[in-house]
């Protein structure tokens, strides 16, 4: 059957003040984590309809916004949230920053598995909390949790930031792993901030497990957003979900004090349209990303490129071990940019430890992936 959406269609993002595409015309960017795909027509229509009313004033969050999340998570992820558990927040990072302030004190530990989304580190550092970093075990190009180290980390921490599924290598945590994390956090009285922003980019249908569907824990805070999967990050629209009333009231007050608890004029209708009307978009997008990844892997194999894609099954970010060619990712990324005009993320951007890795965003048109492959082949043969 013909696809409804055209992910091959190129959009000139240079005209939109795009962070990712603020580069010269002859360059390609595979860097910042948004997609080059056109949003679903239903979303664009919702924005246009909203814009037609020419009064762009202060806005409240109507029930239908939360109901759209509730119904999506019920249909897709078999979890039941209640409307009163939700707080609006402009973004996941704003929520994490605000919540760290409310649930810990300066010098308290905040624990993260590593490698992990680099902005978590900034949120912890900027609030003068201690980063308690727990490295994954890394063997045969695969990561796994070192439970002993995690327990040691949690003993020293007030908060654990869980990236579920995981940025940068797309790990889907099993229910068993999530339950073990919850039980350890219970044991040491640690709050869990579960950032689930990548959850719908589950292209192998490996089925992400929401923390809210696992063992019950009062100190669980779930962060959700349509930003990645529907390409809406620039709309600044997300939610914090907390069942416990006292914790929720504290956090909601904090989001207000930090001035990140109110929507923009365009934060509501496009998100409602996304969750209520765009199932097919997500299916086709995931199929497209899966094909891009399969193409890349096959090209590497067929052409003997000894780059190792770390095996994950979620999200459009690929974490690639380049150690067979270089242990200086900064130099690798710089030379690749200079010689091939392609921008990728240097692993050291995540942490100085990761100088044998690069990160590539494959949520782009297939033609860019083909160009990337040919360029890598040329670059690595020099
Ligand atoms: C794990 C993770 N959380 C949060 C964000 C950013 O979300 P927001 O734009 O809602 O702050 C990103 C963006 O790359 C991410 O990968």
Description:
Helices cover 37% and strands 16% of the residues. The protein is of the alpha/beta class and 382 residues long. The protein has two domains: 13-39 and 278-380, Alpha-Beta Complex (Aspartate Aminotransferase, domain 1), CATH 3.90.1150; 47-277, Type I PLP-dependent aspartate aminotransferase-like (Major domain) (Aspartate Aminotransferase, domain 2, 3-Layer(aba) Sandwich). Helix 9 runs parallel beside helix 11. The mean pLDDT is 97. It binds pyridoxal-5'-phosphate.
Approximate helicity band: 25-40%
Report the sheet with the most strands, covering strand number, pairing sense and barrel closure. 7 strands, mixed
User: How many individual β-strands?
Assistant: 15
Q: Give the C-level CATH assignment of the largest domain.
A: Alpha Beta
Distance between the termini: 43 Å
Structural class: alpha/beta
Task: Please report the number of helical segments.
Answer: 11
Order of helices and strands: EHHEHEHEEEHEHEEEHHHEEHEEEH
Percent of sequence in beta strands: 15-25%
CATH topology of the largest domain: the name is Aspartate Aminotransferase, domain 2
Report the bound ligands by name, code or SMILES: pyridoxal-5'-phosphate
In short:
The chain is an alpha/beta fold and 382 residues long. The chain contains eleven helices and 15 strands.
